[in-house]
Amino acid sequence: MGSVQLTNISCFLEVSFLASLRQLEQLSIMNNPCVMATPSIPGFDYRPYIVSWCLNLKVLDGYVISQKER
User: Fold this and answer.
1) Topology (CATH) of 2-64
2) In this structure, what are the phi and psi dihedrals at residue 36, rounded to the nearest 5 degrees?
3) Tens digit of pLDDT for each residue in 2-49?
4) 45 has which bridge partners?
């Protein structure tokens, strides 16, 4: 099981580089500039975007990824 804490991510596109990490199951990106900016965008949820790149991810920012998010 792999776990990663990313820091200083300014753009969600940077997450695409994690797609090749097939054993990545836990990821934390909270408190990054890209996440901190999203509350100002009504209705934006970054979780499905992250899950679409990291297919084996089970936990994102400390919360289990639901079947609905897949």
Assistant:
1) 3.80.10
2) -65, -25
3) 676 767 788 888 888 888 988 999 998 888 888 777 666 666 788 898
4) none
- H/E element holding 60? strand 59-60
User: How do 59-60 and 24-28 pair as beta strands?
Assistant: parallel
The pTM score is 0.78
Token readout for 66 is 């639901």
Three-class SS state of 53:
helix
Could you tell me which of 58, 57, 59, 45 has the C-alpha nearest to residue 12?
45
Cα gap 13→17, rounded to integer Å? 8
User: What residue spans define the domains of the chain?
Assistant: 2-64
